[in-house]
Design a protein that fits this description.
The chain starts with 11 loop residues before the first helix and ends with a helix. The radius of gyration is 19 Å and the shape is globular. It is an alpha/beta fold. The chain has 2 domains: 7-124 and 274-286, Aspartate/ornithine carbamoyltransferase (Rossmann fold, 3-Layer(aba) Sandwich); 127-272, Rossmann fold (3-Layer(aba) Sandwich). The strands form 2 sheets. It has a 4-stranded parallel β-sheet with strand order 2-1-3-4, with helices on both faces. The protein is 37% helix and 14% strand.
Length: 288
Amino acid sequence: MKNLFKLSDISIAEIMEIILESLRFKAGMKYDKLVGKRVINAFFEPSTRTQYSFISAEQNLGMIATNFNVETSSVKKGESLYDTMKTFEMIGYDIAIVRHPTIRYYEELEGVGIPILSGGDGSGSHPTQSLLDLMTIYEEFGRFEGLKIAFIGDIRHSRVAHTNIEIMNRLGMETYTTGPQGFDDGSAPFINYERALCEMDVIMLLRVQFERHEYDMTLDRDQYYNEYGMTQARVAMLKEKAIIMHPAPYNRGIEISNYAVECSKSRIMKQMQNGVFVRMAVLKRAFE
């Protein structure tokens, strides 16, 4: 049984194996050892890409998927996360996918006897999103060593940035942050935005997470777009082989223009596609 809570717990060798396994699934590899396994998708926060790409991955592997409805559950009566997960174990589920707003929620779940794969913990970690980002970068460049990436925007609230910076540093990438300094939390060296546009191999835009802000933004939406949004003019500033990424959902007209979402440098749609194959790989890994 292998849980997946954060990538900092996993060796580089194992991360590379997950990426290569994901690429094999994308190339059409078949795997039937999970057929009939029962999986509960327990999302305590809203999700489209993570939740439904897990469901797609589960269906591709022949698993039996159930989606947990928080609003009609005993959580509304005060049931703890541990007791909810223990219930799923006892009634016959083989594995759980959990997204929860509490940072390190999984520390409450010691004693649950089925694998748990994290779909994100508050503003802490998002391991499968990071893995699909890595898969997309590896597909593009065939390596990680020496690549430069800048995370632009709401670093403070981004579990994607926090997870990616740690693992990308271990893989030999150069990581930077830029954007409004009020959003920065010191996770990586801060550089000038214009410099980032001209020098980076990868630009990772981050959604402004209005729902998580505990402080007032100094910029309104229009000001943010004018100063930091990925406009057509800024796309033209990027290196010839540079790519644009975004974990999504994206705020069109705030951090990214309609043009940039699907321009020739954008890999945003490929990230979504790759999420299915990464999640197939980690589901397979959970039972190895």
